[in-house]
């Protein structure tokens, strides 16, 4: 009872079982009660692991994965049936795999050994020799200058690699000094015989492997020309010469022009070594060989000759072939009787010659003749059937295709959110009729496909039914011939501006005004619209008004008697018209007025601004507020609570916030002012932080619109309810 005090494990191991329906002892290695060994029982170690509590907790197949100990060893075998050798020394490698204590023995291949070599012992766990055959070899059984017995075969370990030495030292094993490895006496004797032998024939080695390995895939390319004097039209033929550095061979390919009348062949010259002085006639088979032989006896001894290799190549046919040193720009080479001029080369070829031969001059030789002028394609006149574009496409090829629209322009200029990409102008008739001169029209120009539509403004008691006046479509400019070969000109966006006179199908219109979006669009794209380009207008005005500058100053002074340096728009317009004599259009004068106009400063009503923004968000069902606030917080990398104005605007544009540009800029501007004004009623307390953005949340089925302001500071977002 005293021995069992504190003991918790009392289970019994199963030692008996059935094998082939026969009861027998199956658990010889199992412990007794509670895992304790039985009297006289020794538990065999299963793996080479560290003691409990030491080393890594990972299993051996993970901790020692792909780690192998390598030992150099040899085995001595008796050879009883041969007089040349009494014993044989066989060198081998012993590999011990740490992950599962398996052992593999491999004997390296020896040339002309005459015995089976390779794997001597396949990889597995090897038991110890008797009387301990119930145990297996572990790492503790291996050391330098020791012997191990594998299945009655004794192996002498002489040395190991550096990794094995380091590992054994870490395991606490004291390494023995390396032992010398004896040589096999029979192999040593054979080596002496081989070293003393002299070749009966002169040995000549032709080694091309080094050149192949160094220059495999390296090809020099030259552009050349062959002026064929025997051709019918005596025209030059362009060729491309490839020189393969791996084996000094050359192939030539002809560049066949389109519609040249020649058959397209794969190669002008197949790949082979190119002789310099060809053609020289045909040689008999066997005349040109890589090696030559010499009959040293002739026919003196029974008409039987004695042949050996002739390293002096007596009587051999020597041929000179083109090498890379023979090829350079401007050189004429002989290609089987055809004189070909090397005119140019590629960049790799230039770098090769620059590096190997130090050549720097690669001036190309002009060899390409100017192409003949292309005949101008003429088209028949328009027949009047269908559209002009459709009729023109039927003349482009044998298979008529429908006219292609500018899809890229359509995707860029199509309506996107609040960007309508539609220019709207207010127009009226140019007529003397008292009935028509008061009629007002809305001309809409669609930038996506250059189409125009006209709507008439409905006026009460005018007697004229308003609505659609002209169907949407492209409109030709007046004064063009109907049946002609050239395509007609259509009205473009640059033809429409305030003050312009246009004629749509016989109706003359005067554009008298434009909406704010149209004017802003033209000013933003001033490079496309010259009437909205301030720099172009000022340069034009300077050329006209510079000779009359004194008179202009006097008129300005008379218009501003109080010296406020500000005048009304109408006097300014009349002054420009009088001095330019009609050289400026109404739109150009309006652009100058907007550029120099005094912008009235007025306090923006924050409540009204929020109401308008909330209404737009609610109408467009914008609900992506969570992701918008997360992106704004993510861009604040320094967590300082400040984001640039342009970055905030870019983020809002990326989310396609359904707010007009002027409304978005007004909201961002007033939020910036609130962030810097410590006495603003919407500011909760004075802080050095700046307002990121105001999110106007519009809830469906709710009469109350709630706006939230997010202030990002070091301590985190603060929610303010307005």
From TrEMBL:
Residues 65-172, 216-357, 419-526 form the DM10 domain. Its main location: cytoplasm. Keywords: Cell projection, Cytoplasm, Cytoskeleton, Repeat. GO terms for biological process: regulation of neuron projection development. It is found in: Cytoplasm, Cytoskeleton, Cilium axoneme. One of its GO terms (cellular component) is microtubule. InterPro entries: DM10_dom, EF-hand-dom_pair, EFHC1/EFHC2/EFHB. Microtubule inner protein (MIP) part of the dynein-decorated doublet microtubules (DMTs) in cilia axoneme, which is required for motile cilia beating. PANTHER family: EF-HAND DOMAIN C-TERMINAL CONTAINING PROTEIN, EF-HAND DOMAIN-CONTAINING FAMILY MEMBER C2. This is EF-hand domain-containing family member C2. It comes from Anser cygnoides (Swan goose). The gene is EFHC2.
């Amino acid at each position: 009872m005293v021995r069992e005090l504190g003991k918790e494990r009392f289970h019994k191991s199963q030692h008996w079982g059935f094998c082939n329906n026969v009861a027998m002892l199956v658990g010889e290695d199992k412990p007794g009660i509670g895992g304790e060994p039985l009297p006289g029982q020794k538990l065999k170690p299963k793996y080479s692991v560290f003691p409990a509590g030491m080393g890594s907790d990972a299993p051996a197949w993970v901790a020692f994965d792909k780690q192998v100990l390598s030992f150099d060893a040899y085995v001595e075998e008796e050879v009883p049936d041969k007089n040349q050798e009494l014993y044989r020394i066989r060198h081998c490698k012993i590999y011990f795999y740490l992950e599962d204590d398996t052992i593999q023995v491999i004997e390296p291949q020896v040339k002309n050994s005459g015995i089976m070599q390779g794997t001597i012992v396949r990889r597995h766990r090897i038991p110890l020799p008797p009387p301990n055959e119930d145990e297996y070899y572990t790492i503790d059984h291996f050391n330098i200058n020791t012997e191990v017995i594998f299945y009655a075969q004794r192996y002498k370990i002489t040395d190991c690699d550096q990794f094995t030495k380091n590992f054994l030292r870490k395991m606490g094993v004291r390494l023995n000094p390396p032992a010398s490895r004896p040589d096999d006496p029979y192999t040593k004797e054979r080596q002496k015989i081989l070293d003393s032998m002299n070749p009966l024939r002169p040995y000549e080695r032709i080694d091309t492997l080094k050149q192949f390995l160094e220059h495999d895939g390296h090809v020099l390319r030259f552009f050349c020309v062959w002026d064929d004097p025997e051709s019918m039209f005596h025209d030059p033929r362009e060729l491309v010469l490839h020189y393969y550095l791996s084996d000094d061979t050359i192939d030539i390919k002809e560049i066949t022009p389109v519609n040249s009348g020649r058959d397209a062949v794969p190669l002008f010259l197949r790949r082979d070594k190119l002789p310099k002085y060809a053609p020289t006639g045909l040689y008999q088979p066997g005349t040109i060989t890589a090696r030559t032989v010499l009959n040293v006896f002739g026919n003196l001894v029974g008409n039987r000759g004695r042949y050996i290799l002739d390293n002096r190549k007596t009587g051999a046919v020597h041929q000179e072939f083109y090498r890379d040193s023979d090829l350079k720009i401007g050189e004429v080479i002989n290609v089987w009787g055809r004189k070909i001029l090397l005119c140019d080369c590629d960049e790799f070829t230039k770098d090769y010659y620059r590096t190997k031969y130090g050549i720097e001059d690669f001036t190309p030789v002009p060899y390409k003749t100017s192409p003949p002028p292309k005949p101008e394609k003429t088209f028949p006149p328009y027949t009047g059937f269908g559209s002009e574009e459709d009729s023109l496409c039927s003349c482009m090829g044998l298979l008529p295709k429908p006219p292609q629209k500018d899809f890229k322009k359509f995707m860029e200029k199509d309506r996107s959110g609040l960007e309508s990409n539609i220019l709207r102008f207010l127009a009226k008739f140019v007529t003397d009729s008292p009935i028509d001169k008061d009629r007002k029209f809305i001309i809409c120009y669609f930038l996506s496909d250059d189409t125009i539509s006209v709507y008439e403004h409905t006026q009460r008691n005018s007697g004229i039914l308003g609505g659609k006046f002209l169907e949407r479509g492209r409109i030709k400019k007046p004064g063009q011939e109907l049946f002609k070969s050239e395509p007609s000109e259509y009205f473009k966006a640059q033809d429409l501006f305030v003050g312009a006179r246009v004629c749509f199908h016989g109706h003359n219109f005067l554009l008298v005004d434009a909406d704010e979006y149209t004017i802003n669009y033209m000013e933003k794209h001033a490079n496309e619209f010259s009437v909205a380009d301030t720099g172009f207008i000022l340069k034009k005005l300077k050329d006209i008004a510079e000779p009359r500058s004194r008179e202009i100053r006097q008129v300005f002074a008379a218009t501003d008697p109080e010296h406020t340096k500000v005048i009304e728009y109408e006097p300014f317009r009349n002054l420009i018209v009088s001095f330019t004599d009609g050289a400026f259009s109404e739109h150009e004068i309006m652009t100058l007025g907007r550029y120099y106009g005094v912008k009235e400063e007025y306090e923006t009503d924050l409540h009204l601004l929020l109401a308008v923004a909330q209404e737009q968000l609610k109408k467009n069902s914008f609900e992506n507020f969570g992701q918008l606030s997360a992106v704004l917080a993510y861009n604040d990398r320094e967590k300082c609570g400040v984001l640039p104005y342009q970055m905030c605007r870019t983020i809002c544009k990326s989310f396609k916030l359904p707010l007009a540009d002027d409304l978005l800029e007004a909201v961002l501007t007033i939020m910036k002012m609130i962030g810097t004004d410590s006495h603003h009623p919407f500011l909760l307390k004075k802080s050095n932080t700046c307002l990121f953005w105001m999110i106007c949340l519009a809830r469906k089925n709710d009469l109350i619109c709630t706006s939230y302001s997010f202030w990002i500071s070091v301590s985190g977002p603060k929610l303010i309810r307005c």
